[in-house]
Write a structure and sequence with these properties.
By secondary structure, this protein is mainly α. 84% of the residues lie in helices and 0% in strands. α1 packs antiparallel against α2 and α6 packs antiparallel against α13.
């Protein structure tokens, strides 16, 4: 098939780039954990990394739909690599404070705000709709593989090499990602008319009206807000759960991250071979319920049972791959010329609660214990996933979107 060579050239380059990004993220988070040992610092770092999703996504979406998506990804990847290069210099002269890490995370997250929606929107134009579910499974397996490799590799490198040498790996992998992008043609959506002058409020209003025409999508976004409110803090506090509750070191944290990655790979392989339930949204919500159960178990696991914690994290990763089917639903049901705006608007809405949740996460975790967030997050996930499966507009989202597209085509014809 002619689509495979350009897409998988791009996909392979991004796989290398992802490895470097995962390794840097692990190294920076553990540096903060080891240096400060503070829940508030980790929550602040996560908050800063999420701010671009909340405040820049509404602007990034309209721009991605206007600009050449290949160029967007090239600039984003290059900007992230440049920030890593600055960090290398600062670590080399021992001029790093927590606020420097905050700035680095902010810049890297800003690049991702543009890169990820551009990549998702490009995928729907490069891959046949019938293959999107399998490609999403492959993406999940890729992400999981990187999560398996990067943490133990990062832990090993942190113990053996200076921090600046560890970070240099990201420069090499970013170069491979940019090189692959430079070799392929990324198709652009066909527009009925020239987009005209940029008007962010108007274009976001158009995206919101488009979403309102899909009630199931609006319900899913509302549920994602509730889930993110409790799971984002849980993710940011995982290093402290390992260090304080289970008494682990960087290697133990690496094994925890790798266990999650193994689960993601296993789930991604199953999903790529099986393809999921006939209704992809059912696959996604089964994943949400499974993630909730895994978090709940992790939250009540005694500090002496680290093996049980690893098993819980494995299940969470496995079910995360199933939840990833939601992206295939969005790619298949949202018009290509709207995907940049809609994807970034969804991201902004879903993560908009993160400043509030992370602001209270640190103080509450220090008072009630880190495990508190995992128990609450697990209960919320189980409830949201179960409720979604009982709502017709959610379960039938793909069919309703197809009928809507046919009606619009008939009206325009």
């Amino acid at each position: 098939m002619v689509w495979k060579r350009p897409f998988f050239t791009l996909w392979t380059g991004q796989a290398f780039s992802l490895l470097g990004s995962q390794l840097v993220q692990f190294a920076l988070v553990w540096w903060l954990t080891r240096t400060t040992g503070s829940a508030a610092v980790l929550a602040t770092a996560s908050l800063i990394a999420l701010l671009p999703n909340v405040f820049l996504s509404p602007v990034a979406g309209p721009l991605i739909d206007r600009w050449n998506r290949r160029v967007v990804m090239l600039v984003a990847d290059s900007g992230i690599a440049l920030m890593t290069l600055v960090l290398i210099g600062l670590f080399a002269v021992s001029e790093v404070q927590p606020w420097v890490i905050y700035v680095a995370m902010l810049v890297r997250a800003t690049g991702s705000v543009f890169h990820m929606p551009a990549m998702n929107a490009s995928t729907s134009l490069m891959v046949p709709k019938s293959e999107l579910g399998r490609v999403q499974g492959m993406n999940a397996a890729l992400n999981g593989s990187m999560t398996i490799v990067a943490p133990p590799l990062g832990a090993l490198l942190i113990e053996a090499l200076p921090m600046q040498t560890v970070l240099a790996v990201d420069i090499v992998t970013a170069a491979l990602g940019v090189g692959a992008l430079a070799l392929v043609h990324v198709p652009q959506p066909v527009r009925a008319a020239a987009p005209g002058a940029l008007n962010v409020p108007r274009e976001l209003a158009e995206a919101l009206r488009y979403m309102r025409g899909m009630p199931g999508l609006m319900i899913l976004v509302a549920m994602a807000v509730a889930i993110n409110f409790v799971l984002i803090p849980a993710g940011s506090l995982l290093p402290l759960l390992v260090k304080n509750h289970f008494g682990g070191n960087a290697q133990a944290f690496g094994w925890m991250e790798s266990s999650f990655g193994i689960g993601v790979v296993a789930g991604g392989v199953v999903l790529s071979v099986w393809g999921g339930f006939k209704r992809k949204i059912v696959t996604s919500q089964v994943g949400v319920v499974g993630i909730g159960i895994a978090h709940l178990v992790l939250g009540v696991t005694p500090g002496t049972l680290f093996a049980m914690a690893l098993a819980s994290v494995f299940v969470s990763g496995f079910m995360m791959s199933f939840n990833g089917a939601a992206y295939a639903v969005l790619q298949a049901t949202i018009a290509p010329e709207m995907q940049g705006r809609v994807f970034t608007l969804i991201t902004s809405l879903a993560t908009g609660v993160s400043p509030l949740s992370l602001a209270v996460a640190g103080p509450l975790a220090e008072r009630l214990g880190v495990q508190f967030w995992y128990v609450v997050g697990g209960v919320v996930c189980v409830l949201m996933g179960s409720i979604a499966l009982t709502i017709p507009s959610v379960v039938n989202a793909e069919q309703l979107a197809a009928e809507r597209a046919a009606l619009l085509a008939a009206e325009q014809g």
